[in-house]
Amino acid sequence: xxxxxxxxxxxxxxxxxxxxxxxxxxxxxxxxxxxxxxxxxxxxxxxxxxxxxxxxxxxxxxxxxxxxxxxxxxxxxxxxxxxxxxxxxxxxxxxxxxxxxxxxxxxxxxxxxxxxxxxxxxxxxxxxxxxxxxxxxxxxxxxxxxxxxxxxxxxxxxxxxxxxxxxxxxxxxxxxxxxxxxxxxxxxxxxxxxxxxxxxxxxxxxxxxxxxxxxxxxxxxxxxxxxxxxxxxxxxxxxxxxxxxxxxxxxxxxxxxxxxxxxxxxxxxxxxxxxxxxxxxxxxxxxxxxxxxxxxxxxxxxxxxxxxxxxxxxxxxxxxxxxxxxxxxxxxxx
Amino acid sequence: xxxxxxxxxxxxxxxxxxxxxxxxxxxxxxxxxxxxxxxxxxxxxxxxxxxxxxxxxxxxxxxxxxxxxxxxxxxxxxxxxxxxxxxxxxxxxxxxxxxxxxxxxxxxxxxxxxxxxxxxxxxxxxxxxxxxxxxxxxxxxxxxxxxxxxxxxxxxxxxxxxxxxxxxxxxxxxxxxxxxxxxxxxxxxxxxxxxxxxxxxxxxxxxxxxxxxxxxxxxxxxxxxxxxxxxxxxxxxxxxxxxxxxxxxxxxxxxxxxxxxxxxxxxxxxxxxxxxxxxxxxxxxxxxxxxxxxxxxxxxxxxxxxxxxxxxxxxxxxxxxxxxxxxxxxxxxx
DNA sequence: CTGAAAGCGCTTACAG
DNA sequence: CTGAAAGCGCTTACAG
Lengths: 334, 334
What we know:
The structure is a homodimer. Chain A is of the alpha/beta class.
């Protein structure tokens, strides 16, 4: 590995001078400068970031925390975020969080060992020490897809999950559906919110909430959606519509229904939330709530950048607009 | 940030001794040891990795290169790889490559500045300097999903793309199809291989290759698949089956066909390659070739680890087995 | 067993 | 404008 010393020696100058032309903030004589540039070109020298970080106390590195088993929506979101960070010249470091206190502790230690300039969290983290660490060290933090709640010193960006659920369930009700099953989980706050929206929509329409129609899923993927339907069908309770907490669950559900001779949307309507890439390309295409993915990713990075660069000092809570996307999977009850 | 000095001071020992208990390879008196451990516990001290890396000349960091616009299969693969790396205690650094020489150069510079211990490449990189750098600095490298070809000092892991294509196209031919369109691209070597397999299958069955039935796609996603079908339909040439280079293209294709009143599989059969998560949950479910995703991810990491730890000195080329997954999207020509 | 010291690759006051 | 020197947070021979 060629180091700054090598470059200095070859260009017959001091390392300080080399450093100056690399960083370009101090005047250096044209002659030495061009000689140094030449050597850099020849040797392909690139400064060692670890060394720079250590003296500068700045890393330009952002830690991104996401669940170990991230779903499609989170995948799209994090790749959006990664690209936006890259554009601003940040480096990103990924931390896959196991949702138990052991996993969270392990993540905290990795975080400490990395000295990031900022943190983006896509997954709720319970560990108090985690928040304390960020706070004590004044590491700007942005939470995406969930509320800041107990977090101090963190901005948050998310949709109103309760409203989203309410809107889409309302739509089912408008279509005449009364027996609406729900596939979801209360493990994360967005699930809690979505369930709340579901119940509110029912209540406002004077429909009884039926606990038996509420199926708890073990993960947010197609397999879990399919399993949930198996469980639901075993109960032999009538239902004409399904509200899945996420699009992926909905896809699994639709397939499982079909395998049981139940057609979507002819026999049962199905809706989701998220509007992932596939939702408009499946057959039937999925009626769902769109989360503004790109805007979310962009805003996350912008806000974090503002915090880091000192342009924004106060933490904010951003609610992003949603929209109901009507497609083929939900129709009037006949 | 608490440093090793702080710990040393609080424990009333030298930094050398603290370092020794952290690394645990040298005997330290029980008394000092417990005192140091206590201080570490109290202060929440974690060593600064950048500093460690610098002196140790080892980073335990792996650079993962993937295309800027990675498709679903690559997503699943890279998340598989990331998890496997994590289990072995490696850190991963992601590099999103823009497929032009500017983008590749930028990536090389980022790589140089990071000093990784190993590299995993999910995307063909043309830049000669890139390979030269890895070679000169003896950085173990594993290429996944494509052949090592011009790369020296790199192991590779992939399927036989030509065979995969041939197998699935053969299957269509067995089902009686003669006019088989192809959606793909020659931008990457796997595309070239898949096209070759397609042609070979046709040839062996004494079917004429029709250039007009070969549609060039601009990306590997559902939108591109849909666009390709639009282009194909404009030509008004009869076809009874479609071979898409990837599953995502196939999904886009199926949807676009449907929107034009063409049913799958009743009117047209469609097959893909990859077998991504969704392929068994769509309707119709997709007939495709399965790439052994998990095995690929695991093997990639194992091989890289062996190279890094010196357990494996020679570079190898690994061909992974594929399998034809027959599902609903392809049926007998009637 | 343990501390003082050198050194990893950088940057930046400090003096010229 | 420019070099010698100190220092960032570590590890590891080197001497005791």
